[in-house]
Amino acid sequence: MADFYQHPMIATLQKLKDRPVDQIEDELRLISLKRKMVLLLPALVTEFDTPAMPKIIDELIEVDYLDKIVLSLDRANWDQFEEVKKKMSVLQSVVKVVWHDGPRMQTLYDELKKNDYSGNSRSDQRRASGFGGSKGRVDARTFS
What we know:
This protein is an alpha/beta fold. The chain has one domain (36-143). 12% of the residues are buried. Helix content is 42%, strand content 19%. It has helices at residues 21-34, 52-61, 78-88, 103-114, 122-134, and strands at 10-11, 37-44, 68-74, 94-99, 140-143. The protein has a five-stranded parallel sheet, with helices on one face. Helix 2 (52-61) links the parallel strand 2 (37-44) and strand 3 (68-74).
């Protein structure tokens, strides 16, 4: 197998620099008529305290071709989780926040470990849970 493998269910946007953003977004709108698109947005809770995340949210407010946004939230306590959900609620897409430090995800991680899941890091576990969480409900996924 090559050094890099990508599952065929995961779409990657290529050559973003060579085309105007409007042209890319028009193409995504056309694709979204036939296939549901999901953005998986990984984030540490501390990123919500930086200038970057508000800018990302402001950009996503204008996006009308995503069926769902899955925020993969890490290193957050209950209050931070609730605050992040409020901040993401301004988006027009359906938003699901996967709270990796919450009790339900911790139970899932414990189950993975108990069943000899071969992933050896927290990021492996996040990828496994994120991929499985949308399987069967969407036809195409966009990861960024």
